[in-house]
UniProtKB/TrEMBL annotation:
The reaction(s) this protein catalyses: 2'-deoxyribonucleotide-(2'-deoxyribose 5'-phosphate)-2'-deoxyribonucleotide-DNA = a 3'-end 2'-deoxyribonucleotide-(2,3-dehydro-2,3-deoxyribose 5'-phosphate)-DNA + a 5'-end 5'-phospho-2'-deoxyribonucleoside-DNA + H(+)
Keywords for the protein's UniProt record, in alphabetical order: 4Fe-4S, DNA damage, DNA repair, DNA-binding, Endonuclease, Glycosidase, Hydrolase, Iron, Iron-sulfur, Lyase, Metal-binding, Nuclease
Residue stretches of biased makeup (Low complexity): 35-45, 53-95, 107-128
The protein's name in its UniProt record: Endonuclease III
Cofactor: record remark: Binds 1 [4Fe-4S] cluster.
Gene Ontology molecular function terms on file: 4 iron, 4 sulfur cluster binding; class I DNA-(apurinic or apyrimidinic site) endonuclease activity; DNA binding; DNA N-glycosylase activity; metal ion binding
PROSITE patterns: ENDONUCLEASE_III_2
PANTHER family: A/G-SPECIFIC ADENINE GLYCOSYLASE/ENDONUCLEASE III, ENDONUCLEASE III
Cofactor (UniProt): [4Fe-4S] cluster
Pfam families xref list: HHH, HhH-GPD
Protein source organism: Azorhizobium caulinodans (strain ATCC 43989 / DSM 5975 / JCM 20966 / LMG 6465 / NBRC 14845 / NCIMB 13405 / ORS 571)
Organism placement in taxonomy: Bacteria, Pseudomonadati, Pseudomonadota, Alphaproteobacteria, Hyphomicrobiales
Class of the enzyme per the UniProt entry, highest EC level: lyase
EC number: 4.2.99.18
Similarity annotation: Belongs to the Nth/MutY family.
Gene name, Swiss-Prot/TrEMBL: nth
Length: 359
């Protein structure tokens, strides 16, 4: 049986693209989630990484220390200290003041230093080495608290463009049926789709059903997935969810959020992915990409993934809901990237309210 895939290929670059090619297809990382979000909405799912754009850093205020070139110092100073003082004074009076970056003017510029930026953006104080991408997503959330959300017309226009560019978005996780999709999504926490697919090809050949997966046991599952992060815990969850499917659902994946979330390793985001892809329900799984895009653009600002999910569900027109999850993930993964968003080729550049986007 041919393998199905979830997610989607990179979205086509719009006609107004400036000759730049979209970034090469990268594996999915829909396991990432902002640190704050992880607290509030990630449930028991693992893999809460967070992300942030280079633009936010680019918008940070830069030191405006005046130049101290010798040409600015008139008669030769008697001492080094005097020379420094003289040249500094001259420089202060002759250096043209810099225009503050947009993010500074709007009061959103993060302070200098990654740790300080992270704390200012609401990440855990004292976090030793926050990821730059986590800081980026947190900055998007800060921006989201100030931005005016899109109008209904803006939303309709944006999704009409996504639909024109990619009418049938497809994914990259390989699966055969709802059970293998569920297992693949559980395994995808803190792993790439490419990595998960490599592991599941052998795993699904050996154990394509809950019964076979349960019989394979933790050690057997672990042997197939040991290339993935947290593989011991994932193997345990996969075997246990297989047992529960057999015990409570006759070995069938239930098309029900509550029942799905009762399975080990399955949180709201995983349940949303399964309900959307396997059962065609208009759910929207908010991963790190959706969270960033919704806040940066003004599409559906929210402090947590759940806030964003509920706002998206409320505001996206029904005709776009089935594919909204994929369109937004792809947009965030390949264009509105955390560290270096490709604003010049972005199909919604004119609608986006990110203050530092290049026009
Ligand atoms: S213009 Fe596009 S790529 Fe740039 S920040 Fe806005 S949505 Fe992201």
């Amino acid at each position: 049986m041919p393998r199905k895939t979830t997610g989607s290929a990179p979205p086509p670059v719009p006609a107004k693209a400036t000759g730049r090619k979209a970034a090469p297809v990268a594996p999915s990382d829909q396991k990432e989630a902002p640190a704050k979000a992880a607290k509030a909405g990630a449930g028991k799912e693992t893999g809460a990484r967070t992300v942030m754009p280079a633009k936010a850093n680019a918008g940070a205020p830069k030191a405006t220390a005046p130049k101290t070139g010798a040409s600015l110092a008139s008669p030769a100073p008697a001492t080094k200290a005097t020379a420094k003082a003289v040249s500094s004074t001259k420089a202060a009076s002759t250096t043209k003041p810099r225009k503050a970056p947009a993010s500074t003017r709007s009061g959103l510029a993060p302070p200098k230093g990654l740790k300080a930026k992270a704390e200012a953006a609401g990440l855990a104080p004292g976090a030793a080495k926050p990821r730059r991408r986590a800081v980026a997503n947190a900055a998007a959330a800060v921006h989201g608290r100030t931005v005016t959300p899109w109008s209904d017309d803006d939303i309709f226009e944006a999704f009409s463009r996504f639909e024109r560019l990619n009418p049938e978005p497809k994914g990259e996780l390989e699966y055969h049926d709802p059970f293998t999709l569920l297992v693949a999504v559980v395994l995808s926490a803190q792993a790439t789709d490419v990595g998960v697919n490599k592991a599941t090809r052998g795993l699904f050949a050996a154990a394509p059903t809950p019964k076979a997966m349960f019989a394979l046991g933790e050690e057997g599952v672990a042997q197939f997935i040991r290339t993935l992060g947290l593989y011991r815990g994932k193997a345990k969850n996969v075997v246990e969810l297989s047992r529960l499917l057999l015990e409570k659902h006759d070995g069938v994946v239930p098309p029900d959020r509550e029942a799905l979330e009762a399975l080990p390793g399955v949180g709201r985001k995983t349940a949303n992915v399964v309900l959307n892809i396997a059962f065609g329900l208009p759910t929207i799984a908010v991963d790190t990409h959706l969270f960033r895009v919704a806040n940066r653009t003004g599409l559906a600002p929210g402090a947590t993934p759940l806030d964003v999910e509920l706002a998206l569900e409320k505001r996206i027109p029904d005709r776009f809901k089935l594919h909204a999850h994929h369109w937004l993930i792809l947009h965030g993964r390949y264009i509105c990237k955390a560290l270096r968003p490709d604003c010049p080729i972005c199909p919604i550049n004119d609608l986006c309210r990110w203050p530092d986007k290049p026009i």
